[in-house]
Write a structure and sequence with these properties.
9-stranded parallel β-sheet; secreted; Pectate Lyase C-like; mainly beta; single chain
Length: 329
């Protein structure tokens, strides 16, 4: 959903990174300063780039080439996110938002340390290009935690955690494209990752190319993801554990590749068709089904065009449970 969008036109109030003790941008990549209690620690360069669909269409660099600012309250954050031009936004502490808040093109939003938290509201990537959201904890949101919609492209959502919200945690819809969702930890939540707006929104055909890899779907109910229309959707190396309704659902002629995942205590690992939606296509390969039901599969899906290396499925529980979520970049 997309309600209560906030915009801000007041002069910039947020602090530059230099004022907050952070390093400047080096070769277009933000450097995060040592946190309180870690004095003398060397800053960590975020030199990595997304694997999967966000690496295509020119790649995803977020706020590279812009300045770096640090924010610690809602007004600073919403103003920075909705500003023009490239910007790296460091989020410090807990910020309480309300409703959905705009994120414009060429932004990196990244938590400082392992405890940066956004609560109450969510981030709306709407008609935007080239956005990175990393290393944040989202909780108790009143709509969606992160909503990607209206033709947004090249979005990377990485190493975040999500719990206890109202609607979707990471929803992608309405002709959005070239998205990677990686290394996130979802827990104590129901509607996790919707891909595709509705059965009647046929404008999504030819879009919704999304990669989901190394995510930890930890006791969540459904939508890991639930796909409509998206073709060459790639779901690999995720850890599905105790998902009460289902793992992955392919509907409305979507094409989904489910590869080298680990399903533990999941009665319905994959669905072909779901509820009132027509069936999609789903290819499953090299997955492990530990105390889980049999997967549903149907049809064929073209190979993805990008390079990647899938970890062996048997390694996924340890690898993903230890590496997903904030603090693990």
């Amino acid at each position: 959903m997309r309600e209560n969008r906030k915009t801000h036109s007041s002069p910039h109030r947020f602090r530059t990174a230099a004022g907050a003790g952070a390093a400047a941008v080096l070769s277009g990549v933000a450097l995060i300063a040592a946190l309180p209690g870690t004095a003398g620690a060397a800053p960590t360069a975020l030199a990595d780039t997304p694997t999967g669909w966000a690496s295509q269409n020119g790649g995803t660099t977020g706020g590279a080439g812009g300045t770096t600012v640090r924010v610690s309250d809602a007004d600073e954050l919403t103003e920075a996110m909705s500003s023009d031009g490239p910007l790296v936004i460091e989020v410090e502490g807990t910020i309480d938002l309300s409703g959905m808040n705009d994120v414009t093109s060429d932004k990196t939003i990244i938590g400082v340390g392992s405890n940066a938290t956004i609560t109450g509201g969510g981030l709306d990537v709407d008609s935007a290009h080239n956005v990175i959201i990393r290393n944040l904890h989202f909780e108790d949101w009143d709509d969606d935690a992160i909503n990607v919609q209206d033709g947004s492209t090249n979005v990377w959502i990485d190493h975040n955690s999500f719990t206890g919200g109202d609607d979707g945690a990471t929803d992608v819809k309405r002709e959005s494209d070239y998205v990677t969702i990686s290394w996130n930890h979802y827990y104590d939540h129901s509607k996790t990752a919707l891909l595709g707006h509705s059965d009647g929104h046929t404008e999504d055909i030819g879009h919704l190319r999304v990669t989901y890899h190394h995510n930890y779907f930890d006791g969540t109910d459904s939508r890991h993801p639930r796909v409509r229309f998206g073709d060459q959707v790639h779901v690999y190396n995720n850890y599905f554990r105790d998902n009460s309704e289902y793992g992955v659902a392919s509907t409305m002629d979507a094409g989904v590749i489910v590869e080298a995942n680990y399903f533990e205590n999941v009665d319905n690992p994959t669905h072909v068709g779901y509820a009132d939606s027509d069936p999609g296509r789903l290819v499953e390969r090299n997955n492990i089904y530990d105390n889980s039901g049999a997967p549903e599969a149907a049809g064929s899906v073209s190979p993805v065009p990008y390079g990647y290396t899938a970890d062996p499925a048997q390694n996924i529980p340890s690898l993903v449970s230890q590496g997903a979520g904030p603090g693990n970049i």
